[in-house]
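Appendix B. Worked example

We walk through a single record from start to finish. Start with the input: the chain for Protein-glutamate methylesterase/protein-glutamine glutaminase, Glaciecola petra, length 367.
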Amino acid sequence: MKVLIVDDSALMRRHLKSLFEEAGFVTEMARNGQDCLTQLSTFKPDVVTLDINMPIMDGIECLKTIMKTQPLPVVMVSSLTEDGAEATFKALALGAVDFIQKPSGTWTQNMGESAPILLEKVRQASKVSMQKLRSPASTNNKSINAPRQLNSSSFFGKPTPRAQTQTLTERAPSSRKRQSTAKKLIVIGVSTGGPNCLQAILPKLNKEFSTPIVIAQHMPARFTKVFAERLNTMCALNVVEVDTKQALLAHHIYIAKGDADIVISKTGGRLYAESVPITPEYIWHPSVTRLVETASANINASELCCVQLTGMGNDGAQAMNKAHEQGATVIAESNETAVVFGMPGELVKLGGTTKILPNYAIAKALQ
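Next comes the structure step. The output line below is what the pipeline stores for this chain.
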């Protein structure tokens, strides 16, 4: 696999080159966005790692040109700052597959833990269908800073004729228990491709939608705060990041704080969400598995709805399958729209789904 490394830091380029080549990748380097565009036609990379802040042409402008002229998988390299997070979400809206954190401090200390994740993200990016990334939400510039008052039809556009006529797969629950339409809680697990996927679902929920929604999106802490604020401008419901113990309220969406896990508890008959430190028992964070397990422990299965969206790995699959066996409603995003079909695909393999739907149909299924 060929990777084009684009960064204005010579040190960062060398470190990334060494990391990728040790893993068997073929690499080439570019110093800025303009240099990147020049090398695309000669090197023909499978994946581009693209820094955001660079002279001459920055990563955002470079990405816009790539997506317009010769779309290919791009993984952004972002700094852990608020400005870096904002720019990263703009890049994801424009069609970037994923992002990695630019290490701070000593490279060897920081990359020891994150190198396997970085390599896996690049491998996964190489397999992504660009057609899925070039959705109405990702190609419409209005989606980058969409205001709250935009309705779903103006923001997302209409499904293609193929999508409108597709038969949606629906499975009967395996549980003997009777399903209830009244839900007390909806929990959502999502990773790679999550921001655009959630932006294709949550703004379609109207202000009368009352069931609390708790989301575990694999993402660093500084990014989840910015992401919650961003979603809050797009949704009719109130979107907040959970950094302290909070009672779950109607008409609210709760985003788990990054670099931590989120758990559900019950006190005096009221449900709470709380951010808790990570533990070695769970691999990905915020952990979808831990969220689903604690929700299942505190809510009757018939009153719980679990949604598994795009992402690599299998976080949450076993827990949602168990919840489904107990009588919970479980929805998996279909391969039609999932940028990475890993997480929902693992759930589908287990047979733990009530419905398998493309992301544009999930909001209607929740109401």
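Two observations about the output. The first strand starts at residue 2 and ends at 6. The chain has two domains: 2-128, 155-366.
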